[in-house]
Amino acid sequence: MQVPEPFETAVMFWAGRDPAETIAELTELGIRSGQLGLPGDLDLACAPLWRNALRIAGFRVFTVFAAFTGESYADIPTVQRTVGFVPPATRAERESRMCAASDFAAEIGAPGIATHIGFVPESTEDPDYSPVLEMVRRVSDHAAGHNQTFALETGQEPAHVLMAFLSDVNRPNLGINFDPANMILYGTGDPIEALGILGPRVLSVHCKDGDWPDQAIPGALGVERPLGAGSVDIARFLAKLKEIGYKGPLAIEREASDPVRRMNDIRAASELLAVLKPAVTA
Ligand code: MG
């Protein structure tokens, strides 16, 4: 599969509707590549439909993102309880779903998979640390069988915790999908500083923006914003990506629930990147 150009504007989008219509909305914005999210309840037998629609449109999917049924991002304690590989009760079913997502990625020709694994425990003594580590190792190995990378979405733990975890898992195809807004939304730390630490493990990035949580509300998440309207400082983010030698695509991610608002914000984000990119890529 053709490798995207450095800093190519891409998009994070979700399966669930007609593949050809979904892709047409994105190509209409001038976007030719992206990351395809699979909702937890999606029947993955739709892979051949996606493969055909992508081929006809000349659209490249470079990452297949898996979400799981039962996840909720309502606030930080709910995320800790429901998201990713951390909740013990759903570990087995989510491991098999993650491997199925890897098989789906292989069917559509995507070279990588990704997911939020949830909050990595800060202590290696935590009872969840080893089981989650072993699970990430098995999924990495499954992905390696398809020559795929496996990226962990960032933001829910400090950079040094994630770096130590990646090193403990010790798999060459394992890395991160760096999301600068998540670091802010979860109040984890300055994303640009974190990017300096995590740089060698960055496989792909989200261009997403947001504001810090309200300190007066314990456990609250910050608020996602249209790109350029939040606290990330997108020009500084791009400059740091250039500094660490990142050459991959820039996947715009907008989580607004209203579909019209979401597409309008993606269009505006693409226009913003077109203005900001020449300064850093020159
Ligand atoms: Mg993200």
What do these coordinates show?
- This protein is α/β, with parallel strands linked by helices.
- It has a single domain, classed as TIM Barrel, CATH 3.20.20.
- The protein is 42% helix and 17% strand.
- The chain has helices at 19-27, 47-57, 76-82, 91-108, 129-144, 159-169, 180-185, 191-198, 234-243, 259-281; strands at residues 9-14, 33-38, 60-66, 112-115, 149-153, 174-178, 202-207, 209-211, 223-225, 250-252.
- It has an eight-stranded parallel beta barrel. A two-stranded antiparallel ribbon has the order 8-9.
- Helix 6 links the parallel strand 5 (149-153) and strand 6 (174-178).
- It is globular.
- The mean pLDDT is 95.
- The protein binds magnesium ion (MG).
- Magnesium ion binds at residues 153, 179, 182, 206, 208, 253.
Provide a compact summary of the structure.
The protein has 282 residues and is α/β, with parallel strands linked by helices. It is built from ten helices and ten strands. The model has no long low-confidence stretch (mean pLDDT 95).
Q: How are the SSEs ordered, and which strands pair?
A:
Layout: E1 9-14, H1 19-27, E2 33-38, H2 47-57, E3 60-66, H3 76-82, H4 91-108, E4 112-115, H5 129-144, E5 149-153, H6 159-169, E6 174-178, H7 180-185, H8 191-198, E7 202-207, E8 209-211, E9 223-225, H9 234-243, E10 250-252, H10 259-281
Parallel strand pairs: 1-2, 1-10, 2-3, 3-4, 4-5, 5-6, 6-7, 7-10
Antiparallel strand pairs: 8-9
Helix pairs in contact: 1-2, 2-4, 4-5, 6-8, 8-9, 9-10
The structure holds magnesium ion.
